[in-house]
Amino acid sequence: MVNMILLFLTAGFLSYTFAGILLFINKKEILYNQRVVQFFEEPAKKDSKKTSTKKSMAINNLVSKYWERGTNYLNKKVSKEERRKIDTLLRDAGYPFKTAVDFRLFQFVLSAVIVMPILFFMLPAVENKMNIWLLALSGALLGFRLPVFYLGKKKTARIKLINKMMPDFFDT
After folding, report:
1. Cβ atoms within 10 A of the Cβ of 130, count?
2. What CA–CA distance (Å, rounded) separates 103 from 92?
3. Domain residue limits, the chain
4. 24 with 150: CB under 8 angstroms?
5. Residue 32, exposed/middle/buried by CB under 10 A (0-12, 13-18, 19+)?
6. SS3 assignment, position 158
7. What is d(CA 165, CA 15) in angstroms, rounded to the nearest whole number?
8. CB 151 within 8 A of CB 94
9. What are the residues whose beta carbons fall under 8 Å from the beta carbon of 89, sequence distance 6 or more?
10. 3-state secondary structure of 26
């Protein structure tokens, strides 16, 4: 039973990783195709999209309400020094998140998203519960550190782009 669960989790992880790699490679082409389709779309189809967006707007309102509640709570908890460090990371990466508090909240949400499937799917199936708790702890740490790795990657990509745009510019 555990082997089947691990097999499904591995298959899911590999498929999401492969999809992420493909999306990263083909991102410009996908955006270009979406713009072309949007430009040449018939007016009747645009009207039908308006009705389908009402449902997604309700979900967005619900998520944004809880997101605001979380940012208000974390606003009091994040120290000034921590904000300054996170703001420096965000500035160097080109501000992929709004504020330091939003970034910290995203770290907590990502940690919970990684830990919950581990606990819900793996905990009832195994006899040695301690290993699952250690796996959940490592998943939480991974979820907390992944956005920082993402910011580092964005920073290096941004520096490479700047260096590519200004090849004659020398750093002093």
Report:
1. 8
2. 14
3. 1-40, 78-165
4. no
5. exposed
6. helix
7. 35
8. no
9. 103, 148, 151, 155
10. coil
Other C-beta atoms lying within 10 Å of the C-beta of residue 80:
8
Q: Average pLDDT of the chain?
A: 81
Question: Is residue 95 left, alpha or beta, with left meaning phi > 0 and alpha meaning psi from -120 to 50?
Answer: left
CA 1 to the chain's CA centroid = 31
Percent of the chain with pLDDT over 70: 84
Q: For tokens 């501000």, what's the residue?
A: 95
Query: Can you tell me the distance from the alpha carbon of 136 to that of 142, in angstroms, rounded to the nearest whole number?
Result: 10
- Type of residue at 146: L
- In the numeric block, which tokens belong to residue 70? 């979380």
The string of pLDDT tens digits covering residues 26-73 is 777 777 677 767 766 665 555 555 555 666 776 777 778 888 888 888
- The DSSP annotation for 76-144 comes to HHS-HHHHHHHHHHHHHHT-SSSSHHHHHHHHHHHHHHHHHHIIIIIGGG-S-HHHHHHHHHHHHHHHH
- Find how far residue 27's CA is from the centre of its chain: 16
User: In this structure, what token pair is assigned to residue 127?
Assistant: 């006899």
Handedness of CA 33, 38, 39, 40 (dihedral sign): positive
83 CB contacts (<8 Å, ≥6 apart)?
100, 101
